[in-house]
C-alpha cells in the first residue's frame, strides 16, 4: 500500500479494520461514514457532552459482549493449569486483546467526539429567501416546504442513519414551514425561539415569527397528532386543530381550524385571523420581496383568506378597505398609511 492510499480519508485505521473483520455483524458503512466526517471536524469546537456520552454508550452496546470484555478488569474464569510457556502465551494473548480493545475504543471515541463537535458547531441550513418558496427532503425521508423568509437548521449527524437513530431528529426553525414527517426512527422535534413541537409521523405547519418584538409560534395540524410545549406545559393537538405560544407564556388550548384555509400560503394565497396591519404587511413584504412601510395605522384587526393573491398592492388595498387605511406606491416600494 503506497503513502497516498494510507492517507485516504475514507480508509479506516488498521485497529478498526481488524475489529470489523472479527465482527461481521457490525455496520461497517456507518462506521466508515463516521470516520470520514471526523476528518473534517474541528476539535476546538464546543459540543454537548450529553450527546457524546449517548453515542459512546450506544457504541459500547453495539460492539457486543466480546468488545466489552476487553475493558473488564475482573479476573478471568478459572482454566486448567498450564505449563510456563502456555501460561506466558496466554498472558500475551490477553494483553494483546486488551490493548486492541482500548485502541479501538480510543480511536472510535475520538472519532465520535470529533463528529459530534462538528455536527453541533456547523449545522446544515436550508433557506427560502424573501420572494421564494422552497421544498426539500430531509435525510430521514421527511419532506418540508419553506415559506418565504424562512431558515431551517439540522445537525450534520442526520446524514448518518446510525447517529440519527441514537441522537434523535431535531430541527430548528425561524420562519414558517410545512412538514410531512416519516414515522420511522425517534420522535421528530421542531425547536423555535419559544417552543418545541414533538411528533412521530404526521403532517403539520409551524409558523415561528417575531411580531411586535416577541416570538410567536403557531401550529396547525393537517393530519396526525402533535405535542406543543413551552414554559413547562404541553398542549396536544389532533388533526384540524391549532394552538399558539406567545412570548414566554405556555401554549394556548387547541381550537378547531380549517387546514386548507390556514395553509393557503402553500398555494400562493394568504390567511390571517385577527391580524394587525403590521403583521399582514410584514408577511406580504416577505412573500413578494418588496419593501413595505406602515405609518401610524390604527385600524382594527383583520381576518382575511385569499386563495391566490393578484399582487401586493391589490392585496393590501383589500385589507385597507376593512382597516380604514390606504396604499401608496413609492420609489422604494409601498407605504400603508391612515386615510
Short précis:
The protein is built from nine helices and 18 strands. With 339 residues, the chain is of the alpha+beta class.
Number of discrete helical segments? 9
Reading off the top of the CATH hierarchy, the class of the largest domain is best stated as Mainly Beta
**Shape, per Cα inertia axes:** elongated
**Assembly state of the chains shown:** single chain
CATH topology group of the largest domain: Jelly Rolls
Mean pLDDT level: 79
Regions with little confidence, pLDDT below 50 for 5+ residues: 1-9, 40-47, 65-71, 73-77
3D structure, described in words:
The longest helix has 38 residues, at 84-121. This protein has helices at 3-6, 14-21, 28-40, 49-69, 84-121, 161-167, 259-262, 277-288, 312-323, and strands at residues 124-128, 134-137, 143-146, 150-154, 169-180, 188-191, 196-199, 203-209, 216-223, 226-230, 233-237, 241-246, 255-256, 270-275, 292-295, 302-306, 325-329, 334-338. It starts with a helix and ends with a strand. The protein is 35% helix and 28% strand. Residues 1-9, 40-47, 65-71 and 73-77 have low confidence and may be disordered. It is α+β, with helices and mostly antiparallel strands and 339 residues long. The strands form 3 sheets. Strands 1, 2, 3, 4, 5, 6, 7, 8, 9, 10, 11, 12 and 13 form a 13-stranded mixed beta sheet that branches. The protein has a 3-stranded mixed beta sheet with strand order 15-18-17, covered by helices on one side. A hairpin with an 8-residue loop joins strand 12 and strand 13. The chain is built from 9 helices and 18 strands. It folds into 3 domains: 3-121, no CATH class; 123-257, Jelly Rolls; 268-339, Phage tail protein beta-alpha-beta fold. It is elongated, with a radius of gyration of 28 Å.
